[in-house]
PAS domain S-box
Amino acid sequence: MRRVEMRDSLRIEEELHVLYNSIQEGIEVAGKDGTIQYVNPYFSRLTGISPHERIGKNIFELSPEGALARVLRTHEPIYAHRSTIEECATNVIANAYPIIIEGNIEAGLVVFKPLTDASKLSDELEVYKQRIQVLSNRINQMAPSIYSFDDILGSHPDFVFVRNKARRAAETNTPVMIRGESGSGKELFAHAIHSGSLLSHNPFMKIDCADLPESLLESALLGYEKNSQGNSSDQKLGKLECASGGTLFLDEIGLLNEHMQNKLLNILQKKKFQPLNGLRTIELDVRIISATNRDLKHMVENGEFSEDLYHLLNGVDIPIPPLRKHKEDALTYAQNFIYKANRKLGKNVIGITTQAEQLLLDYHWPGNIRELKNVIEMAMDSVEGDMLNIKDFASLIEVVNKTEEIHFREPMALDQLEKKMIRLALERYGNSVEGKKRAAGVLKISLATLYNKLKTLEDNA
């Protein structure tokens, strides 16, 4: 993985170097501590200051009130900022942007022209803003996959068979469709397939069709550009373009409406697309991995999903078994979640008692591995010793049965299970605002989502 990350870093660095050197505006880049790291050739032509004289000095000392220093302090973009480069007494007008990677500011970038060109800049400022923003978006979105096949644990023969099939699929560029219930690990498999492929050094992009409303899904996929009136500075690269040369992961593909199914089918057949409101035609160069918890074959038979799109996406079928089909692996997963929670919470839990292990093995896990993770995290939140015991799984016992019997024989609808988990979390943490915040955190949902679910429960009561 380190070698892959190095290749990514070198490739992005080369792209930036070529871009910066070709722009006919002055460009200066400084690290988060203010140390000047780069000036482009136009900077030197404009100011008469060579890279040797500029690089290594500190922008906070040279120009503490300039756009670059200000953007490093505020972490916010700055537009049309007038200042003077003291060494050459050159008045300039500048735009500056923070370079933020994974939520942290790493550097700042300023683009400027002499103030004498301000009349022209008034029409060009938005263009520069778009150019830098698009580049910033591309840097931020060029995220590699974060999991590999080493992260897919489990030794049950049926599960091992599916994992090996996914390994073989990773060695090709054939589209992959991952099927499985919610919480069974479909996204983990998608990451691993990308990491194990020849495309691993290129981007891995995800669109969750369940999270985005229909009105935003098309723009997320295709991106959008300035509208025909030219009065909008909005421009965003779509996931298809950002994933160029890599993998696009379409999660919950079965939720696409008919319009988006036809749009995606057309793109895959023609192997090209245009951003919304854009005139550019972009060649498609991505590998598609899709995932669903629905029976797409049945949906095709009922006319609810495009048959042509189904066959294009279903190059290799990866059916992930639900956890109840390989419950022997539950203890392996639990131990892995304990290890991660120890690091997060600063605890030193070494395992699970025999009685508690039997509880985990007896439960049928309708929410699959995701539910197991939540149960372990709730237990780790309250454990006092170095072993998780039966009392730490009070939440699971209550879900299994309101009595002290720990066997759960009858099926339960997932919405009923969700209600039980919400009520249990509120019983543990209370109905105060702070209690609801903690409950939402344990349930891995936002506070707003919790309030919406509580309102639904009240309406259906």
DSSP finds 20 helices and 16 strands in the chain. Residues 291 and 440 are 26 Å apart (CA to CA). Residues 2-141 form a domain with the Beta-Lactamase fold (CATH 3.30.450.20). The first strand starts at residue 26 and ends at 31.
